[in-house]
Amino acid sequence: MGLKLFVDDLRTFPEKGFECVRNYDDCLLYYSIFGDFDFVSLDFDLGDGHTGLEILQWLKANGKNPKHINIHSTHIEGRREMQKFALENFPQAAVTMNMTE
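== Conserved domain protein ==
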């Protein structure tokens, strides 16, 4: 698998294998630097007024097509909204909800 991105405002970042950012703006910056990510792991509440759902909407609007979208949020409604959006808009992607990614 290619590049992996982990987006979370509070959780400890994975020790290796991921590019890691804390907020929406840095996520978009990393996309401008690296191009695309094959694996994206998202939290819902990013603590900066943005959400992981907004990142998914940006990915869709900008023609980004990760192979795997992981939702690692504990926000029940946000997790549900993100899963629904990902399944409807990224049919080629594996969509998982896993706190350990």
